[in-house]
């Protein structure tokens, strides 16, 4: 559109290409790490243990040395970009630079922790990352399914919440985790179906509908929680839980084993769904048509693709996925409480956007956000001076930077949010 | 329409809305009449006739009223299915249907009765304060919603969807509270500064998505959603900082706003209604003037309807986008400031602004994004909130039911075609939410 | 339709050609009547039925998913799958199929290219390949040459001939007579939704034009000779990019004097739009200068340009010219709402706006139910009059009018033309950009022809059409190369609209 085009600054001309700008930022971060973190770090060893506590094998480095060294790594990566790096190296060098900065930061934090706590149990941190990322993964996948077919899904929060609630309720009533799981899927699908009917059939603005459905889900589950679950938790809010399944052999792999192969069904299901949806989206007929409908529904229609039917299908599938994601709380970790999703649905939306509407991107974004969350917990445990609230803001700030085009270009499916009206 | 609850006792909160809606000219004049099925309000025969003719046409008012009725029916069903005792009577409904119906009727009518008594008038109340208390409560809840509703509506008219009223309200409440207990100012001036600080906080938080939209084309829906959460974390952080946190408390609560910075109560100390509602009315008038009678409003509406043509005609679209978001943010910030300067609370807590930002979206939609419509919608929501409190304490019906009702009303009014189909209304233009705004990310 | 026939469907804009074809393709449902294929009635419930019946269509606006590869676009809807229920795409087979069809009809496309990176002509080729892989016997081409350069048009005609040789039938929808005569076997002329006649390609242009328009229209504009004064607009070495950062204006120099009309002719898409937008401050100029009445306008906002006495009639009125939801009155002050008497400070003066609207409506003969009616409810001609009224009600030094009469009824055309000349006679410098050669010839005192972002020649209004036509095709008299006469004749000098051929 003309408006936005004019607003956009003309293409980078001359020296300040995008690579160089990112390089400059990395140099600044590197300096920050090498100088500030280096100065603040202590002489104590920063230990990164490969276990759940301080025991066992560990990677160690002197705090000050580590902070300066890794800061310099980031600095070097930035300098390479400033010097005019070939484009194909961009992602790799950016990754190196950011990891360098992160490690510099961690060396400072871990070494500056109270004596006796100068270690970071990597298994714990990584496992926590996955636990915190799991609902985000399900939520973001629900977003992928929905938005790839052209329906904006702001109702992820509501779908997760309804899934968590119905999983808890019917799991408790039936006493079966499996009934609970199916009920959770149906609960999520119910919210989705409302979204689909109103957005597709009645052409209600999809963002409006998403917001309203979130409130509806909060209201309905909150109301029924107070009426049923609070009065009689025994019958209505004591769902059985899935236990952890240890996968033989694989679970013995150091570091990864305990993180990836000793989880519950939701961990396996979540990772499997990423893979399945990725393949389905890019390698199957359904995927091709879904993407076509999300990009250019009229074109798909002229080729005989049933646009509306496909959208209904995908939106409802999204609800099923998100509903199961909601159950990952109530059928594995906690009993239901009011508004227990608490904004995770919106972080999932952020992960979807940050992950550029792709399943694998969403997975990585969810893990990044989960890590930020877990890091906040860890830092407050070692009495860090960094306020956990600022780490908690990280996913949201990252997403804002991403959509503003400061971190690469983010492009939504072209027809995302636009109702399809024939003729 | 399904079984229960044919006429719940309180249609009144809407009738006052209706009078004003008619005044706004939202109802349409259609000629021929089908048989009206609605109970008829009194009035002179000609007027009444005209009213009847219009009533069953799918105009804005009828759709709104029927949406309320539908929402209350769904709410009633929720109440019944979640009440084990009443539900038990349904197990032998074929044997003794009256039991089930009576039990349901008692439950629902009592709940909605309390909703009405808490929101409008309690016939059994004795004394000045008791009689006015429901109205006072309703207006107390209404005031901030007017501001957040106006915030969303103003942006909407300018073609921007401000989901960020919540975050803007939070930044507003923070700055208002800080000004309220950190600045040693004389009464009057102190209040003014605190209110303006609230507006400033919101304006800053609106400026960010505004400038991002104008400069990079980044979608304001995404950015405002994200900024809402940034604001939440900022609030939880700042509350526990030295100089902000109440020194006598270990939990997350700030110092109290000085009385010199608090909005005066309107009807004495016994009633909570405060000057915020006056500000709300003034703000509504100001926004109405701004939109319809000012050059800025002209630009804003033009950009909202067709940014390309506006740009061609020399209007700076980027500047307008930024201004819209700054104004919208300031309005939401004002709404937020009332949450500590008014009578609901006088110190920051993590949940100090409650849901007013998100409710503002619903209010704006319900008010058809017109300033006075928004004010009336806020009144309805305020009434539901106030009534909901009484319903909770007297009938034991969770306040969450109010959230359900609010969401359902908006769902129904957002899809007038659905309401029309359910009630088989005659076709007439009902102001529907602009789907033209559906432009995705 | 016979097999192996190219059947042209000729008609003015809005005559119902595209609608008819969309019905034939199953996109719209007919209200009555039926479609016969091989003498059997055919009921089309959707495009898939049409495809099954062997009908393919290349739409005026391409139906391609921009972010997909060529192969993906072609496979969509008729995917080759393996793996049963999973429905895995057989990409190799899809690619091979594309290659096969490309080779068979000599339509070169790269199956792995992303469609949005391809030039328009190639995208159209992808559309044709898409239809051919579906084994169609009848191919509908809806206004295929509207967006093509002469070279691309020539290639398209070659492709059509080879398809015909392969036994495919083609329905070719157009309003350009030259192309029709060059390729069609049979011609059906449509006017206002009705068949008004069939003709053979041997029919003269005049006959066809008369059939198409239904009246003989002469678009001559009564005007005195111009009395050019000082230069008002001077453009020197202007360079401008389009939305896709592709160079659109590549070093344009031109001058418009007070009291003259400079016409800018050219096939659409040769940089005219970007040139005007750069002058108006709507698009950044990368190099060169624009001088308005002695002042360099570099860095001026659009508002400043307008305030300096420039009137602007944009080429797409519904996108850039009017706010459809606004009333006629509001649209009449869209660019001066904040100036006295309409606005004072922050306040708007509705009374002044209403009074002025009333006058303008009368003065410019705008047919509307009231000044408070949304402008979107007016007819195209009256909408255009609203814009003209708005722009001409300010004192102007320069008037820029782009496609001022596109999609406008004959009565309004005459009115608008007379207003433009009136403005010239009042001493305003006027620049008229139009892809309708007759309009340019009728209005202009000098004609600048634009081709690929450059002014390729400036000629007088008495220059023969053929010569201007050659210029529009990029052939300058001194360049010597005549190129391919048949095509340049058919593609380039075939402006749209009524009476375009009356002098040919």
UniProtKB/TrEMBL annotation, chain B:
This is ABC transporter permease. It comes from Micromonospora endolithica. It is a multi-pass membrane protein. One of its GO terms (molecular function) is transmembrane transporter activity. Residues 1-45 are annotated as: Disordered. The chain crosses the membrane at residues 56-81, 163-183, 189-208, 220-240, 273-291, 321-341, 347-365, 372-389, 401-423. Keywords: Cell membrane, Membrane, Transmembrane, Transmembrane helix. It is found in: Cell membrane. Residues 24-37 have a biased composition (Polar residues). The keyword Transport does not apply. InterPro entries: ABC_transp_permease. CDD domains: TM_PBP1_transp_TpRbsC_like. One of its GO terms (cellular component) is plasma membrane.
């Amino acid at each position: 559109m003309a408006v936005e085009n004019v607003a956009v600054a003309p293409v980078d001309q001359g020296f300040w290409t995008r690579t160089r700008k990112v390089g400059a930022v990395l140099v600044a971060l590197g300096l920050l790490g090498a100088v500030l973190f280096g100065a603040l770090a202590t002489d104590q060893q920063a230990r990164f243990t490969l276990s759940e506590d301080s025991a066992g094998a560990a990677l160690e480095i002197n705090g000050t040395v580590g902070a300066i060294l890794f800061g310099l790594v980031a600095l070097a990566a930035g300098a390479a970009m400033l010097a005019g790096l070939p484009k194909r190296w961009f992602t790799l060098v950016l990754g190196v630079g950011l990891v360098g900065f992160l490690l510099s930061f961690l060396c400072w934090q871990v070494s500056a922790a109270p004596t006796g706590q100068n270690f970071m149990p990597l298994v714990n941190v990584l496992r926590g990352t996955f636990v915190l990322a799991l609902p985000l993964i399900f939520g973001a996948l629900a977003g992928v399914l929905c938005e790839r077919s052209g329906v904006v899904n702001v109702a992820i929060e509501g779908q997760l919440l309804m899934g968590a609630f119905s999983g808890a309720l019917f799991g408790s009533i039936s006493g079966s985790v499996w009934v609970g799981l199916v009920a959770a899927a149906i609960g999520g699908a119910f919210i989705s179906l409302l979204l689909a009917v109103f957005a597709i059939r009645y052409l209600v603005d999809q963002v409006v509908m998403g917001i309203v459905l979130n409130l509806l889900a909060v209201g309905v589950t909150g109301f029924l929680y107070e009426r049923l679950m609070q009065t009689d938790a025994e019958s209505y809010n004591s769902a059985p839980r899935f236990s952890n399944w240890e996968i033989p052999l694989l679970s013995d792999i150091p570091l990864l084993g305990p993180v990836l192969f000793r989880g519950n069904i939701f961990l396996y299901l979540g990772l499997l769904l990423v893979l399945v949806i990725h393949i389905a989206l890019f390698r199957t007929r359904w995927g091709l048509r879904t993407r076509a409908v999300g990009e250019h529904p009229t074109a798909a229609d002229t080729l005989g693709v049933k646009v509306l039917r496909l959208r209904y299908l995908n939106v409802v599938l999204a609800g099923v996925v998100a509903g199961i994601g909601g159950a990952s709380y109530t059928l594995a970790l906690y009993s239901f409480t009011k508004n227990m999703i608490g904004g995770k649905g919106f972080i999932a939306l952020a992960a979807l956007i940050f992950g550029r509407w792709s399943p694998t991107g969403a997975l990585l974004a969810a893990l990044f956000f989960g890590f930020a969350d877990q890091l906040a917990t860890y830092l407050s445990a070692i009495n860090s001076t960094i306020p956990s609230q600022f780490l908690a803001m990280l996913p949201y700030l990252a997403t804002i930077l991403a959509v503003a085009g400061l971190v690469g270009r983010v492009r939504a499916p072209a027809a995302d949010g636009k109702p399809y009206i024939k003729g | 329409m399904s079984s229960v609850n044919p006429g719940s006792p309180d249609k009144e909160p809407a009738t006052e809305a209706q009078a004003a809606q008619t005044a706004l000219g939202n109802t349409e004049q259609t000629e021929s009449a089908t048989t009206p099925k609605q109970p008829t309000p009194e009035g002179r025969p000609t007027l009444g006739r005209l009213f009847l003719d219009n009533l069953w046409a799918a105009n804005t008012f009828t759709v709104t009223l029927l949406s309320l009725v539908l929402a209350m029916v769904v709410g009633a069903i929720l109440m019944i299915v979640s009440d084990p005792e009443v539900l038990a009577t349904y197990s032998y409904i074929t044997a003794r249907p009256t039991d089930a119906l009576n039990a349901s009727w008692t439950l629902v009518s009592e709940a909605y009765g309390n909703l009405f008594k808490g929101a409008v008038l309690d016939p059994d109340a004795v004394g000045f304060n008791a009689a006015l208390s429901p109205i006072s409560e309703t207006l107390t809840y209404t005031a901030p919603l007017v501001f957040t509703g106006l915030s969303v509506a103003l942006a909407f008219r300018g073609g921007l969807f401000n989901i960020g009223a919540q975050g803007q309200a939070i930044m507003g409440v923070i700055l208002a509270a800080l000004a309220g207990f950190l600045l040693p100012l004389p009464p009057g001036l102190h209040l003014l500064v605190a209110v303006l600080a609230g507006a400033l906080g919101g304006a800053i938080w609106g400026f960010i998505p505004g400038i991002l939209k104008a400069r990079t084309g980044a979608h304001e829906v995404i950015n405002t959603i994200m900024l809402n959460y940034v604001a939440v974390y900022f609030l939880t952080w700042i509350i526990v900082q030295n100089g902000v946190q109440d020194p006598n408390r270990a939990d997350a609560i700030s110092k109290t706003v000085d009385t010199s910075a608090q909005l005066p109560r309107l009807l004495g100390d016994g009633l909570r209604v405060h000057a915020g509602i006056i500000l709300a009315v003034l703000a509504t008038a100001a926004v109405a003037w701004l939109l319809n009678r000012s050059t800025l409003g002209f630009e804003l509406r033009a950009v909202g309807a067709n940014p390309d043509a506006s740009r061609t005609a020399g209007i700076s679209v980027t500047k307008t986008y930024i201004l819209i978001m700054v104004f919208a943010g300031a309005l939401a910030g004002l709404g937020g400031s009332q949450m500590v300067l008014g009578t609901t609370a006088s110190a920051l807590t993590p949940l100090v602004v409650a849901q007013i930002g998100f409710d503002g979206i619903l209010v704006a939609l319900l008010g058809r994004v017109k300033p006075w419509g928004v004010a009336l919608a806020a009144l309805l929501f305020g009434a539901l909130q106030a009534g909901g409190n009484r319903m909770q304490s007297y009938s034991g019906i969770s306040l969450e039911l109010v959230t359900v009702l609010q969401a359902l009303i908006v769902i129904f009014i957002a899809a007038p075609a659905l309401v029309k189909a359910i009630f088989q209304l005659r076709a007439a233009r009902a102001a529907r939410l602009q789907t033209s705004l559906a432009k995705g990310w | 339709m016979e097999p192996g026939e190219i059947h042209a469907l000729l008609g003015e804009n809005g005559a119902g050609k595209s609608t008819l074809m969309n019905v034939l393709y199953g996109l719209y449902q007919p209200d009555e009547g039926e479609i016969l294929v091989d003498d059997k009635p055919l009921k089309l419930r959707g495009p898939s039925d049409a495809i099954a019946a062997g009908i393919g269509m290349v739409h005026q606006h391409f139906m391609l998913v921009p972010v997909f590869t060529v192969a993906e676009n072609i496979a969509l809807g008729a995917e080759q799958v393996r793996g049963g229920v999973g429905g895995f795409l057989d990409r190799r087979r899809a690619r091979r199929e594309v290659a096969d069809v490309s080779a068979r009809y000599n339509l070169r496309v790269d199956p792995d290219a992303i469609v949005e990176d391809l030039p328009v002509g190639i995208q159209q080729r992808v559309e044709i390949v898409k239809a051919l892989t579906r084994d169609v016997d009848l191919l509908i081409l809806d206004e295929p040459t509207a967006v093509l350069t002469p070279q691309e048009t020539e290639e398209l005609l070659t492709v059509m001939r080879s398809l015909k040789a392969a036994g495919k039938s083609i329905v070719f929808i157009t309003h350009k007579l030259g192309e029709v005569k060059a390729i069609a076997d049979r011609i059906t002329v449509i006017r206002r939704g009705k068949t008004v006649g069939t003709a053979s390609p041997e029919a003269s242009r005049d006959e066809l034009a008369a059939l198409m328009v239904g009246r003989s229209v002469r678009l001559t504009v009564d005007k005195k000779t111009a009395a050019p004064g000082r230069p008002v607009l001077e453009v020197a070495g202007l360079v401008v990019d389009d939305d896709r950062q592709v160079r659109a204006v590549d070093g344009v120099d031109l001058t418009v004097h007070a009291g003259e009309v400079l016409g800018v002719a050219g096939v659409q898409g040769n940089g005219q739009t970007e040139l005007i937008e750069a002058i108006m401050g709507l698009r950044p100029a990368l190099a060169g200068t624009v001088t308005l009445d002695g002042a360099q306008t570099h860095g001026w906002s659009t508002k400043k340009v307008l305030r300096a006495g420039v009137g602007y009639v944009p080429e797409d009125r519904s996108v850039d010219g009017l706010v459809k939801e606004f009333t006629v009155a509001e649209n009449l002050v869209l660019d001066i709402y904040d100036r006295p008497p309409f606005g004072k400070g922050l306040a708007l003066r509705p009374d002044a706006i209403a009074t002025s609207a009333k006058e303008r409506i009368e003065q410019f003969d705008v047919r509307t139910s009231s000044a408070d009616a949304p402008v979107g409810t007016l007819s195209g001609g009256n909408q255009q009059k609203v814009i003209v009224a708005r722009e001409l009600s300010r004192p102007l030094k320069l008037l820029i009018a782009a496609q001022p009469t596109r999609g406008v009824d004959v009565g309004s055309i005459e009115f608008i033309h007379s207003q433009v000349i009136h403005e010239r006679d009042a001493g305003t410098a006027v620049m008229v950009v139009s892809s309708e050669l007759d309009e340019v010839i009728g209005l202009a005192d000098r004609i600048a022809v634009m081709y690929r972002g450059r002014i390729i020649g400036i000629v007088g209004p008495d220059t023969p059409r053929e010569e201007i036509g050659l210029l529009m095709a990029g052939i300058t008299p001194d360049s010597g190369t005549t190129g391919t006469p048949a095509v340049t004749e058919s593609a380039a000098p075939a402006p749209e609209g009524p009476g375009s051929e009356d002098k040919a």
